[in-house]
Design goal:
Distance between the termini of chain A: 38 Å
Order of helices and strands of chain A: HEEHEEHEEEEEEHEHEHEEH
Number of strands of chain A: 14
Structural class of chain A: alpha+beta
Oligomer: homodimer
Largest sheet of chain A: 7 strands, mixed
Radius of gyration of chain A: 19 Å
Chain lengths: ~280, ~280
C-alpha cells in the first residue's frame, strides 16, 4: 500500500531550461516597460483622475500597451491580464499579469517607491515574478525552483527570531483607506495596528520587495486585484518565506479582491491569525 | 502715535551674506557626515540594540563624532545638540542640532528612506535646515529668507485646493507605535487615521522632505526630540508652508518631546484641528 507521490503542481512539468527561458522572456518584457516609463519620466507627463479617483498617467497606459504588443508578437500563445486594458486570452495555459506602474500616485508625486509588477502564471500557479523599481534602481525577480534574486544577489529569508520583541517586528501595512474603501472593515485595521504598531506604509509594491528581501518582516495587502500581487507569491516562496491568502472576495464590476500577508513564516502566521481573528471574531 | 515696527526675530539682524555664510558652513558639515556614512555603508556595519530598543550603528556614532569635531574646529563659538552625545555649549547664540542618521532601523535594513538632519538655530529660531538622503541621492535645504531648495531647484508649496476630496489628500503619519510608546494616546492615532485615511508611514525624515516639496500634502510627528525636527520648520516655512506645534511636553530623563504637523497651510490647519480635538476633547 505504497502510493507514488502525486505531483499536482503544473510548474514541475516544465524543465529548468524551460523555466529559465520564461524568466528571460519576462526580464525582456520588464526592459520594454522600463524604457517606456523612463521615456515618459524624461519627457514629463499628464496626470488625470480616473473614475475611481485613483491616478493614471500616460506612462501607465503606454507601458502596458508596449508590453501587450510585445507579448502578442513574441508569445502569441500566452494571455494577459492587466490594470489598464481588458483581458486577452485569459484561458491560455500561461497568462501574464501586469501592473505597469503600481503606485501611480507616488509616481505622479515624484516619490520613487512605485514599481512595475510582472507575473507569469501557469494554470493558476505563479511561475515567474518581477518587481522592478526603476526610480530606486533595484529589481527583485524569481522563478519557480530557480530562487529569488535582487540585483544579482540571491535572496533568502531567515525566519523571525521568536525572542524578538513585538515592537521591533517590522510590518508593511496598507493605510486605513484600504480597509474602508469598499465596506467598513476598520476593526481589522485597528486589530492589525494594535498587535503590530511598528508598521510602515509605502502604498506600493516596494513593501513586497522589502518583505521578500528581509527589510520588513512581513507585509499585508487588503482587497487588492490580482495584478497588485501578480509577482509576489513566487518571489516570497522562492526566498524561503510564506505567502498566505486570508480572504478572496468577488466584487461585481471589479472582480476578485485579495487580502494577503507574506514574509518571514512565523511573522506571517502571527499576522494572519490577527487578521482572521478580527474578520471572524466568532470563529 | 505711530510706533516703529518692532523686530523680535533675531534672524533678521543677520545680513543675507551672513546667512549665506552659515548655509555654506552647514552644507560643508553635511558633506562631512555624508563621507562618514558612505564609508561605513561601503565597509559594512554593526547593529546593536540601544537601551530604548531603537537601533544604533557605528555610522550614527562616527558621523556625529566627525560633525562635532568639525564644529569645534571651525565654529568654536557655536553649540551642539545631538542624538548620540550630550549637549555642548547649549547656551550659545547659535546652536547646531544634528541627527546623523534619522531612521537607523531603515538604514540597518537597507531601506533608503533614512536621512541626515542638520539644523542651525539662532536664539530659538531656525536659521538653516538641511535634510540629506545619501541613499536616495536627494537633499533639501533652506535658510531664513533665502528660500527652500531641493537638488538645485527652488521649492514652493501651493496651498491645498479646497475642492480636493479628503481621500486624495496625502498625509505622512507616524506608526501607531509613536502614540503608545510613552503613554496610551491611541485615540489620537485613531482620530488622525479616520480623518486622513490616505496616509504614508515612512518612519523617517523623508516624510519631511516630501511635505516640504509637495510629495505629501502634510506630515505629522508625534512625541519626538528636537533633533528629529531640527531642520524641518525653516524648510517648510521657506517653501511657503506652515509648521505648527500641537504640543510640547517635558519627559524626565528624555527632555522635551514635540508633536508637530507641517506642510500645505490648509492641510496643516485641518490636521492640527483633528489632533487638538482628540487631545483635548472637552475644549
Amino acid at each position: 500500500v505504497c502510493a507514488a507521490p502525486v505531483t499536482t503542481d503544473p510548474r514541475d512539468a516544465l524543465s529548468l531550461q524551460e523555466r529559465e527561458g520564461w524568466l528571460r522572456a519576462a526580464l525582456e518584457l520588464r526592459d520594454v516597460c522600463r524604457d517606456v516609463v523612463r521615456g515618459v519620466m524624461a519627457a514629463g507627463f499628464e496626470v488625470d483622475a480616473k473614475s475611481d479617483a485613483s491616478l493614471v498617467t500616460t506612462a501607465d497606459i503606454e507601458a502596458e500597451r508596449a508590453f501587450r504588443l510585445q507579448v502578442d508578437e513574441r508569445h502569441p500563445e500566452t494571455g494577459v491580464l492587466g490594470e489598464e486594458f481588458g483581458p486577452a486570452r485569459p484561458d491560455a495555459d500561461l497568462v501574464w499579469v501586469i501592473d505597469p506602474i503600481d503606485g501611480t500616485a507616488e509616481f505622479a508625486n515624484h516619490i520613487p517607491l512605485w514599481g512595475t509588477i510582472i507575473g507569469l502564471w501557469l494554470r493558476g500557479q505563479p511561475l515567474v515574478g518581477i518587481i522592478d523599481h526603476p526610480a530606486l534602481g533595484t529589481c527583485l525577480h524569481a522563478a519557480h525552483g530557480l530562487g529569488a534574486w535582487r540585483d544579482g544577489e540571491r535572496v533568502t529569508l531567515a525566519d523571525l527570531e521568536s525572542a524578538a520583541p513585538a515592537t521591533l517586528r517590522r510590518l508593511g501595512a496598507p493605510s486605513r483607506f484600504a480597509f474602508v474603501k469598499f465596506s467598513d472593515e476598520s476593526d481589522v485595521y485597528g486589530a492589525l495596528t494594535r498587535t503590530h504598531p511598528n508598521c510602515r506604509t509605502f502604498h506600493t509594491c516596494y513593501a513586497h520587495t522589502c518583505a521578500a528581501s528581509g527589510g520588513l518582516d512581513a507585509s499585508v495587502e487588503w482587497n487588492v486585484p490580482l495584478w497588485d500581487i501578480g509577482a509576489t507569491r513566487v518571489c516570497i516562496e522562492e526566498a524561503g518565506g510564506r505567502f498566505e491568502q486570508v480572504r478572496e472576495v468577488e466584487r461585481s464590476g471589479i472582480g476578485a479582491l485579495h487580502s494577503v500577508v507574506f514574509g518571514r513564516p512565523r511573522m506571517v502566521e502571527e499576522v494572519a491569525a490577527t487578521l482572521r481573528g478580527a474578520l471572524y471574531p466568532g470563529a
